[in-house]
Amino acid sequence: MILSQKRSNLALLAAGVAGSAAAGFGFAFGKDAYKKTKRNAFSILLILAVVFFPFLGGRNLVRGHDRGFWTTVFITLLGSVLLIVVGFCAATAVLFHIAAMGKLNSENPLPLAVIGGLIITLVGTAIGLIVGLCQRPKRLRAFAACRANEKFLSENGFRETGGTDITHYDPSGQALRFIEAHPERLVFMAVGRRGKRAYIELDQSGRMMRYSGIQ
After folding, report:
1. Residue pair 81/47 in contact by the 8 Å Cβ criterion
2. Residue 55, Cβ neighbours under 10 Å: how many?
3. Beta carbons of 87 and 117 less than 8 angstroms apart
4. Fewer CB atoms inside 10 Å of the end CB: C or N, the chain?
5. Count of beta carbons in the 10 Å neighbourhood of residue 211
6. Residue 15: pLDDT over 60
7. Chain segment 134-185, per-residue pLDDT in tens
């Protein structure tokens, strides 16, 4: 009984060695993975460009933006096309590298790489276009509501302070502090008037409809 209750020094020693070995293995594995990731950073970026750039380019072309003319030309149009072109070049480079290493049976790998890169880019761009078109109506409604709300605030004499204690002044000059937003209204506290609130009513699309005044 006495022997059965004693801890085995050998077991403790083995556990300690195993723990150290396991910790050392984990550290070595993590360090090795970091070195491989660092060494293959360019390849990883290239693959990300192949997968995501055509998708982002196609999506950004059609998803809807609230931009001026020149911003639309340079960012929406040229920027999106540039992403697609870079994605195509990256896909072609990856496929050419694979073919040149002999993993694809081809005596002239460049045409095969170009065709494959074009197919991959077209698929990614098409998926991006579909996603962008699905997002477009909701985004355009949100932009329209935002413009309408800016007009509402301006026409009704609201002023925004940029502060935290007093965030707005209403048409009568009453200081307001924005508290919270609900789907049907925005809630303000009337600063300096205990227990008083003010509300801006919203419709289902988020457009401001009416200011309640202090209540």
Report:
1. no
2. 23
3. no
4. N
5. 18
6. no
7. 999 999 998 889 988 899 999 999 999 988 899 999 999 999 999 999 889 9
CA distance 166 to 169: 8
Question: Cα 146 vs. chain centroid, distance in angstroms?
Answer: 21
- Residue 54: alpha-carbon gap to chain centroid: 16
Instruction: Reduce the secondary structure of the chain to three states and give it as a string.
Output: CHHHHCCCHHHHHHHHHHHHHHHHHHHHHHHHHHHHHHHCHHHHHHHHHHHHHHHHHHHHHHCCCCCCHHHHHHHHHHHHHHHHHHHHHHHHHHHHHHHHCCCCCCCCHHHHHHHHHHHHHHHHHHHHHHHHHHHHHHHHHHHHHHHHHHHHHHHCCCEECCCCCCCEECCCCCEEEEEEEECCEEEEEECCCCCCEEEEEECCCCCEEEEEEEC
> pLDDT for 99-131, tens place per residue?
887 766 567 888 889 999 999 999 999 999 999
**Residue 121 and residue 91 in contact, taking contact as beta carbons nearer than 8 Å:** yes
* Calpha distance 81→75 (Å, rounded): 9
How many Å apart are CA 121 and CA 57, to the nearest integer?
10
Rounded to two decimals, the pTM is 0.71
d(CA 92, CA 110): 8
Nearest-10 crossing angle of helices 109-155, 80-100? 160
CA distance readout (Å), 50 to 86, 112, 138: 8, 16, 28
